[in-house]
């Protein structure tokens, strides 16, 4: 079943068109990756889905409902959570307080302890540091915290914007293993990522975005083997 659908979506920043008549879909249970160079429109697409950027054309549907004009906070209530580029943790709050902020829109408060324990099982390091201020964590730990905070909203769709950016290689591998585990536990994932090797090896399907338009789509592993993708994004001639 299709969970998310973008149909002919366009987004402008003033007179500059960042995304042009973009059409993509994400089915329930999938990991779908959006790859592309800097400035291709990947993060703009994510902001459009989460409601931070208004559309200048097209339509967005989620779980069969048109959400094109729905406010960003109400999209969280519907089941869309975004981990923004740059992580955006609350630096003065503890790890536990940051995670609690992720659940601000939830009405089913009785399930919060179990969901918090699930986050701590995925990220044992967060449990060890639960009383530590978010701003004192390493980059990798902050990324774990940002993902954990988004999971506390109990999303149907998790939007991950450049989760590996600025991380050491060992953290990158760990983050992508956890993304796969989150997906296997039932959460659908849309992933924007410059690390094409990791993204395509984990994604069921992927789209290649260039200057605001989709230029290729296919199974993640098929695109990983595509010579033009290898040359452009994997540094292999």
What do these coordinates show?
There is one protein chain. The protein is of the alpha/beta class and 237 residues long. The protein is 37% helix and 27% strand. It has helices spanning 42-50, 72-78, 95-102, 112-122, 124-128, 139-151, 169-184, 196-202, 220-224, 227-233, and strands at 2-13, 16-27, 31-35, 57-62, 65-66, 80-83, 157-161, 188-192, 205-210, 213-219. Helix 3 (95-102) packs parallel to helix 6. This is ABC transporter ATP-binding protein.
CATH topology: Rossmann fold
Number of domains: 1
Low-confidence stretches: none
What's the arrangement of strands in the largest beta sheet? 6-7-8-3-9-10
| CATH top-level class | Alpha Beta
Q: Measure the end-to-end span.
A: 38 Å
Strand tally is 10
Mean pLDDT: 94
Pfam families: ABC_tran (PF00005)
InterPro entries: AAA+_ATPase (IPR003593), ABC_branched_ATPase_LivF/BraG (IPR030660), ABC_transporter-like_ATP-bd (IPR003439), ABC_transporter-like_CS (IPR017871), BCAA_Transport_ATP-bd_LivF (IPR052156), P-loop_NTPase (IPR027417)
GO biological process, one term: L-amino acid transport
Protein name: ABC transporter ATP-binding protein
Keywords:
single chain, 237 residues, alpha/beta, Rossmann fold, six-stranded mixed β-sheet, four-stranded antiparallel β-sheet, 10 helices, 37% helix, 27% strand, globular
Write the layout of secondary structure elements.
Blueprint: E1 2-13, E2 16-27, E3 31-35, H1 42-50, E4 57-62, E5 65-66, H2 72-78, E6 80-83, H3 95-102, H4 112-122, H5 124-128, H6 139-151, E7 157-161, H7 169-184, E8 188-192, H8 196-202, E9 205-210, E10 213-219, H9 220-224, H10 227-233
Parallel strand pairs: 3-8, 3-9, 6-7, 7-8
Antiparallel strand pairs: 1-2, 1-4, 4-5, 9-10
Helix pairs in contact: 3-6
